Amino acid sequence: MILSGLAVLSMCIFCFGIEEMVCILLVSSFFFLKVLCWEFESESGGFFSVDMGGGMLVVLSVFILVCMCLSGFGVVHFNELKVVLGVIGIMLVVAFSASSGFLFYFCFESVLIPIGMMILGWGYQPERLQAVNYLVVYTVGGSMPLIYGLSLFYKGGVSSFVMSMSVGLSNNSLMSGEVFLSAFLVKLAVFPLHLWLPKAHVEAPVFGSMILAGLLLKLGGFGLFRFMGVLGVAWGSCVVIGVLILSAYGGVLLSFVCLRQADLKKLIAYSSVVHMSGVLFGLLSGVGLGMASGFLIMVGHGLCSSGLFYLVNCMSLSSNSRLVCLNKGFLLVCPSMSFFCFLLCISNMAAPPSLNLFGELLMFMVSAGFSSVLLVLFGAMSFMSGSYSLFFYVSSQHGKSGVGWVSVKSLSFCDTMLLSMHLVPLSVLFMFYP
């Protein structure tokens, strides 16, 4: 599984052109369907271990990286961009399949280097250096407790493999599972540790935004799944309850922020933070259905947000702006773009048929059995998610188009193909889920 993912990624990015990438991606997707089974597990040499969660994210990494490569086709220094994307893909595949805590931490933090290079090298905004500073300071600063805990385990003679850390935790009175939370909460970008995410999205190019929302946030969720499951973070602890209520309350507040956004990219970035609140609850619930809902929302959000960022890029190329007030009337100017915008918006609000709907239904089932307060907060988030998704669609597709637009009658073949590649898995993957 691990070797096949790396091989497909390397062939697609380093060796072939746009037609070969699409063919290999479509053929390889059929071989990866077997990971959609809870009994799936693969191990290689003791250093790598892939279960259903890790396998889903490995497949998502290969898929999003190839879509990013296709979206950046034709940009300046495209060959250098392919190298950067290849390095990011290899680090992500290794991180999602690593059994060693130190190997996971190395890839967990090292992926920031090529992402920062991507923002600095291909970003087009004057404040991209400040965005990279936000990204590095927040994520590296939040990861200090994680490397401290791993080093303390290693100093105490405990194996660095994740499954062995529960023994070291039970024998160490100075450590608790909550000490690892900050690293994953920052990378997951939950409220109020999310401030780096909108800044990075605004300054990043379209393929940079696709990887930030589609894959980088998933590192935090996967870290919670891999570490919290063996370190025994108690559901009833004050830290966990406080973190969940704060993130859910922040998700409701940021939903109102989405309704007041003037920048389309920031609107999608803040909506990502709202979705991550549901992912956090599912992964920290410690229940099988809760973890399943967290992974389904992560995969659905990775596909949906990546497609929305690419759609916003297509709209901004027509209007030369990302402002809501200048992106209007696409229903008359480009009906095919409105069609894709409608489908992505209903997927973002978890309407059928979409993978997000299945994930949110499981999340509501689990939250109803834990706390009525969380159930009310998640219900408010779900309602507001529909509100700002409809706001995004109505404000951009209806109304009178701006003066001085670049002439656009329909989407190109590459644009249609990329948007379809995001929508098809969103609509059909739930049928393969056991």
From TrEMBL:
The keyword Repeat does not apply. GO terms for cellular component: mitochondrial membrane. InterPro entries: NADH_UbQ_OxRdtase (IPR003918), ND/Mrp_TM (IPR001750). Residues 102-381 form the NADH:quinone oxidoreductase/Mrp antiporter transmembrane domain. The chain crosses the membrane at residues 7-33, 53-74, 81-97, 103-124, 131-154, 174-197, 204-227, 233-256, 268-289, 295-317, 329-350, 362-393. GO terms for biological process: ATP synthesis coupled electron transport; electron transport coupled proton transport. Signal peptide: none annotated. It is a multi-pass membrane protein. Keywords: Electron transport, Membrane, Mitochondrion, NAD, Respiratory chain, Translocase, Transmembrane, Transmembrane helix, Transport, Ubiquinone. It comes from the Eukaryota. It is found in: Mitochondrion membrane. GO terms for molecular function: NADH dehydrogenase (ubiquinone) activity; NADH dehydrogenase activity; ubiquinone binding. Its EC number is 7.1.1.2. Its main location: mitochondrion. Pfam families: Proton_antipo_M. It catalyses: a ubiquinone + NADH + 5 H(+)(in) = a ubiquinol + NAD(+) + 4 H(+)(out). The keyword DNA repair does not apply. Core subunit of the mitochondrial membrane respiratory chain NADH dehydrogenase (Complex I) which catalyzes electron transfer from NADH through the respiratory chain, using ubiquinone as an electron acceptor. Essential for the catalytic activity and assembly of complex I. Belongs to the complex I subunit 4 family. This is NADH-ubiquinone oxidoreductase chain 4. It comes from Modiolus modiolus. The lineage of its organism: Eukaryota, Metazoa, Spiralia, Lophotrochozoa, Mollusca.
